[in-house]
Amino acid sequence: MTRLKIALIASECYPFVKVGGLADVVGGLAKALHQAGHEVVVIVPRYAAIDGLRFKLQPFLSPLGVWMGNSQEWCAVQHADYDGLPVYFIEHDHYFGRPGLYHDPEFYDYQDNVRRFGFFSRAALQLCRDMGFSPDIVHAHDWQTALAPAYLKIWHWDDAYLGNAASILTIHNLAHQGRYHADDYDYLGLQWGNFTSDKFEEFGGINMLKGGIYYADLVTTVSPTYARETRTPMGSNGFAPYLARRGEDYLGIVNGVDYTQWNPALDPHLPHHFGPRRMAGKGRVKAALQKRMQLEVTRDMPLIGVVSRFVDQKGLDLLAGSIEAIVSDMRVQFALLGAGEKGLEWYFGPLPGRYPGRIGSYIGYNEALAHWIVAGADFFLMPSHFEPCGLNQIYALKYGTLPIVRATGGLDDTVQQYDEATGDGTGFKFWQATQRAVYDVVGWAVSTYYDRPQHMRKLISRAMAQDFSWATQAEAYLHVYQRALSNKRSLG
Ligand code: ADP
Ligand code: GLC
């Protein structure tokens, strides 16, 4: 195997800064590639939200000059070590010294996001040059860094340091494309000749992701089913033609999991531990979770967990429309954790007051509680309208917490349907995006819990045996990297 030099350029990376699954993927993939012997660097913005003391950030380089439009802009670079993996942080106070990553506390997008992330993408490439790191692969993620492949092709094609790099763009969510006003196009320095409807232009504005899809040597997304869905007009947010144009150079790879972070036998967040052959600990975590969330502490009532960003994608409207009927008609408990849209927060927040002992909810972001719920619940519900991959259901499998999911995107790829005749499968799937379908599938899971305990045991043991470790998934990325390199070579 040739040792590759890989630059991962992203807007989030666990453990330094995380909003959602993107951070877990960037951190996990980088670590796995590093452990497989490749030379990997990760480059992220130096947000105010990153705890410099905790992560021992050190000054690395100052100043770093970055050409934007036709003038040079200056920033600095910090460095941290993540188990031997170098992580670099682009420091630019005006752009990143704010409370949020992408939006203000009221959830309004920062209006200069196109400048912030355009600058960041260009700065990340400049950093590679200035520190003499000549990558074989530049791997960008989502709209935030989608301009990196474009800068490589437009500005660095004959560069001594960057000219040989092949670029990969991974799409984690097509609902977010980075659409901004054309007034900022000059600043990006992408040349007006490229402001066309197949590259950056859309309805007179800029679409960052679209440009990335055009310029990357290879485009991936985070599950094969989402890759298929997004080739159709229904699932593509308008991108089907651009993705279809990439032919076989657009494909899906299911996300991996960092089982040092998500493992019931080792999980540092948990009060008790367990594994496939010693399940008593799971019952203890369930009791501790029931207590913590003010639920009735009982062994024999099924507990359904939900951990989610409260955004349209996640289908919590379907749960909001069915949860009261569910707890009225079935002997079941819910433990809910999430934050986001105010309407959902206002609904789920006070719900425990109306169903004491049966519904527990916590509005906010709480990493430890997320682990408790994934570990202590019997089922884990994700009724997503769409889900590019989804990580929580994969974590849940390892903890013997059976996923109940809508069969879309990565949820469909990672959960095997329960077969009532044989007891095979790893979870419960439903198809229709309706409140009724959520009610019915929960009813199916709950009746399995009460009426077919032998099947529950089979499902749980098969779920816990599933392996989505990054070591395996990183292999799939390495194949893609090789293909991207040969794509690039064949195009000269
Ligand atoms: P997405 O990235 O679309 O939010 P994923 O399932 O890929 O969906 O990843 C979500 C990640 O964010 C998981 O690691 C999950 O545990 C975490 N998460 C989401 N909401 C919260 C929350 N309120 N508190 C703690 N962790 C959360
Ligand atoms: C996005 C998607 C989610 C996916 C995550 C990591 O946030 O919504 O489905 O798991 O990215 O790829």
TrEMBL record:
GO cellular component: cytosol
Name the UniProt record assigns to this protein: Glycogen synthase
InterPro entries (UniProt xref): Glyco_trans_1, GS/SS, Starch_synth_cat_dom
Gene3D superfamilies: Glycogen Phosphorylase B
Keyword set includes Transferase: yes
Entry EC number(s): 2.4.1.21
Record-linked NCBIfam families: glgA (TIGR02095), PRK00654.1-2 (NF001899)
The keyword Glycosyltransferase is assigned to this record: yes
Domain Starch synthase catalytic: 5-243
UniProt similarity note: Belongs to the glycosyltransferase 1 family. Bacterial/plant glycogen synthase subfamily.
Domain Glycosyl transferase family, residue spans: 296-422
Residues that coordinate or bind ADP-alpha-D-glucose: K18
Keyword set, alphabetical order: Glycogen biosynthesis, Glycosyltransferase, Transferase
Pathway(s) annotated for this protein in UniProt: Glycan biosynthesis; glycogen biosynthesis
Catalytic activity: [(1->4)-alpha-D-glucosyl](n) + ADP-alpha-D-glucose = [(1->4)-alpha-D-glucosyl](n+1) + ADP + H(+)
GO biological process: glycogen biosynthetic process
Molecular function GO terms recorded: alpha-1,4-glucan glucosyltransferase (ADP-glucose donor) activity; alpha-1,4-glucan glucosyltransferase (UDP-glucose donor) activity
Pfam family, one: Glyco_transf_5
Function in brief: Synthesizes alpha-1,4-glucan chains using ADP-glucose.
Gene: glgA
